[in-house]
From TrEMBL:
Any Pfam family: DNA_methylase
The organism of origin for this protein: Nostoc minutum NIES-26
Domain of life (superkingdom): Bacteria
InterPro entries for the chain: C5_MeTfrase, SAM-dependent_MTases_sf
Molecular function (Gene Ontology), one example: methyltransferase activity
This protein's name: Uncharacterized protein
Length: 62
């Protein structure tokens, strides 16, 4: 925060930033839910990455 206060991000907020849909249900334990979010890959990033890799493997990108 501008005044130097540090706020923590909620599980719901972190899930939204990571691209989880609103309907996704996390375990009630914050540590477990945080691990799921922390180890996940945002779907849009994964799609872009795999599209790029496919193009490289097919020779479309040199």
């Amino acid at each position: 925060m501008p005044d130097g206060t540090v706020k923590s991000l909620s599980i719901e907020g972190a899930a939204i930033l990571q691209g989880f849909p609103n309907w996704y249900e996390f375990p009630p334990q914050a540590a477990t839910a945080g691990s799921i979010i922390g180890y996940s890959v945002p779907p849009l990033f994964a799609a872009q990455l795999f599209t790029h890799i496919q193009k490289q493997l097919s020779g479309a990108i040199v």
